[in-house]
């Protein structure tokens, strides 16, 4: 934890981020959101260049190459070989360039990784270049007020600030702050609802997640139920 946790405070976590579709494999359940159920935006997640459009065989080979590179990157990061990580990312992004669109999940993962590692190595100017490319892709995938987008913009703003790009950094940090402030208001509203009526809050949340109208039912009572049948005297 990064701060003090009060007694009774609710702790939540995301099972998985949108770039890593391993939900069923790791947690053994399927997401019921519309994007996952209807395959919305999958054409963007696996987007390829339009002009010229690569063949299916080329796309298949590039996906496998990207997966293999990600495995090498994970191994290099675990061994602390950060300059090797940067080299692998650069090479992979160069090969992906003529094949993948800027919203492709494999390109976004490479951009996220290389910008993070370059920032750790204090190569902020190059890191800011990759981070801005990452945000451009995110903005085509996320809702403008999505918290994940806000975090990505904040990180990119800070990277630009460290690189000396003060105006760009300030603009992005302000934009991120606006998104996260809206999210804070939303979570505070839900917190009040939860504190006032936990039972009703969970009913409403479940209905919303399943995209169903909520059916209002009586809150369960702790008192014993009245006798419905009477023994014949």
TrEMBL record:
The cellular component terms of Gene Ontology attached to this UniProt record, alphabetical and capped at eight, are:
nucleus
InterPro entries in the cross-refs: H3K4_H4K5_MeTrfase, SET_dom_sf, TPR-like_helical_dom_sf
Fetch the SUPFAM superfamilies from UniProt.
SET domain
PANTHER family for the chain: HISTONE-LYSINE N-METHYLTRANSFERASE SMYD, HISTONE-LYSINE N-METHYLTRANSFERASE SMYD1
The protein here is known as SET domain-containing protein
């Amino acid at each position: 934890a990064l701060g003090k946790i009060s007694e009774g405070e609710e702790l939540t976590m995301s099972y998985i981020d949108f770039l890593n579709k391993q939900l069923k494999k790791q947690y053994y359940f399927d997401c019921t959101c519309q994007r996952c159920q209807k395959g919305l935006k999958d054409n963007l997640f696996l987007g390829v260049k339009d002009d010229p459009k690569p063949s299916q065989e080329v796309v298949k080979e590039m996906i496998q190459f990207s997966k293999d590179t990600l495995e090498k990157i994970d191994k290099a990061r675990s061994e602390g070989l950060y300059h090797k990580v940067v080299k692998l990312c650069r090479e992979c992004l160069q090969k992906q360039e003529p094949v993948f669109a800027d919203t492709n999940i494999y390109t976004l993962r490479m951009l996220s990784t290389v910008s993070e590692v370059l920032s750790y190595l204090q190569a902020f100017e190059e890191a800011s270049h990759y981070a801005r490319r990452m945000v451009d892709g995110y903005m085509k995938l996320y809702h403008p007020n999505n918290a994940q987008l806000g975090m990505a913009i904040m990180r990119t703003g800070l990277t630009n600030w460290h690189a000396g790009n003060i105006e760009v950094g300030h603009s992005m940090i302000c934009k991120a702050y606006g998104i996260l402030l809206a999210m804070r208001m939303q979570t505070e509203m839900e917190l009040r609802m939860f504190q006032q009526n936990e039972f009703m809050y969970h009913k409403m949340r479940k209905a919303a997640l399943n995209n169903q109208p909520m059916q209002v039912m009586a809150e369960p009572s702790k008192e014993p139920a009245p006798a419905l049948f009477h023994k014949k005297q």
